[in-house]
Design a protein that fits this description.
130 residues; mainly alpha; globular; CdiI
Length: 130
């Protein structure tokens, strides 16, 4: 294992040195996110990533993993509809993409390689329209 990949075997709680505990009044989505924050990120499924990214959990760790899954299948269905993971990744705010130019470039290439399908299946946020 490459030393730079050690982070993949840690949970979000470990990576962020932060602990979340569910409260009885938390929604089911919040409880799911808290439970997923305790799982090593390498074990997160496309569905798990979709939920966590959609709830604005740390994109620095989650978006690279999501992009790996999208490279295998750009329109992977993560519980809701084909392309739901893609949609949540594209909804990550522009400042993240501006800080992570390599990831931005990867996403642009994937979108451009299937531009017709993307345009017909996904409502692209303004940042990605070009």
């Amino acid at each position: 294992m490459n030393r730079k990949d050690v982070w993949r075997y840690k949970s979000l709680e470990q990576l962020e040195n932060k602990r979340w505990e569910p409260a009885t009044e938390d929604s089911m989505v919040t409880k799911r996110c808290i439970a997923l924050s305790k799982v090593p990120v390498i074990k997160l499924t496309a569905s798990d990533l979709r939920v966590l990214i959609g709830q604005a959990f740390n994109p620095n760790y989650l978006v690279p993993l999501a992009i790996e899954k999208l490279k295998d299948d750009l329109f992977v269905e993560a519980d809701l509809y084909p392309g739901d993971l893609l949609k949540n990744v594209l909804d990550v705010p522009p400042p993240f993409w501006e800080e992570h130019q390599e990831l931005h470039h990867d996403m642009k290439q994937m979108i451009q390689s299937r531009a017709v399908e993307v345009a017909s299946e996904i409502d692209l946020p303004g940042y990605w329209q070009s």
